[in-house]
Amino acid sequence: MSVSYMTHPLIKHKITLLRKCSTGTGEFRKLIEEIAMMMGYEALADLPTADIEVRTPIERTMQPVINGKKPAVVPILRAGLGMVNGILALVPSAKVGHIGIFRDPETHLPQVYYGKLPEAISERQIVVLDPMLATGGTAVAAVDFIKEQGGKNIKFMSVLAAPEGVSVLMKKHPDIQLYVGCLDRCLNDDAYICPGVGDAGDRIFGTL
User: Fold this and answer.
1) How far apart are the first and last CA of the chain?
2) Cβ within 8 Å of residue 108, ≥6 positions away
3) N or C: which end of the chain has fewer CB within 10 A?
4) Known catalytic residue: 103?
5) Which domain holds residue 17?
6) DSSP label of 71
7) Domain count, the chain
């Protein structure tokens, strides 16, 4: 399985701040964005490059730039939207798609209600964003949808994950790369990550 767990102390610190009940909406939103940006450095480390000629104040030189189709950033609505600007800060030219998946509060099964991806998706590096990887059902449904549309090079980024969700996602899609800010202990009876941060979507958008 290709799973990367973040170890940078700044990411750990910011995730601790996310967990606090006293962290307000504005600060929570900013922290999610900052964590996504720091995780993005790792997730995008293998972007293809090609050398171009650049004229510096000193001389002409051949230097690398990102090459090929620009990456596709695909947040899972709605909480994934909180991570988008963090990735776009690194790659402003990235294309942005959206996948809407609703988890039934009783069955916890995913319900896909919307999906739109950038063109030529099969030629792009795809980064799927969702702050929480809980049961894995939503993540699996999102990757299923992307593959059905022709996506191949898929990476999945979550700020927090439960072991159950990691196992489900990687068992169903062992070919993707998963990046996790912190692996938490378990899921509770309501399928919330423990110790977790509560409902990330509600805390990002202030709908508690």
Assistant:
1) 36
2) 135, 137, 191
3) C
4) yes
5) 2-205
6) P
7) 1
Structure-token pair, residue 196: 């977790």
50 C-beta neighbours (distance < 10 Å), count = 10
- In percent, the amount of the chain with pLDDT more than 90 equals 92
pLDDT at 51: 97
pLDDT per residue as tens digits for the range 4-31: 999 999 999 999 999 999 999 999 999 9
Q: Is 199 a catalytic residue?
A: yes
E strand residue ranges, 30-176: 49-55, 60-66, 72-77, 95-96, 98-103, 110-116, 125-129, 132-133, 153-161
Question: What whole-number distance in Å separates Cα of residue 6 and Cα of residue 75?
Answer: 20
If we measure between CA atoms, which residue out of 95, 81, 79, 76 comes closest to residue 141?
A: 76
Amino acid occupying residue 134: A
Q: What is the CATH number of the domain that holds 110?
A: 3.40.50.2020
pLDDT value at position 1?
Answer: 56
pTM of the model: 0.92
Kindly name the residue from 19, 23, 144, 202 that is annotated as catalytic.
202
- pLDDT top residue among 104 and 149: 149
Helix (H) or strand (E) segment spanning residue 179: strand 177-183
Could you say which of 49, 107, 175, 185 is catalytic? Answer: 107
Q: State how far the Cα of 93 lies from the Cα of 174, in Å rounded to an integer.
A: 29
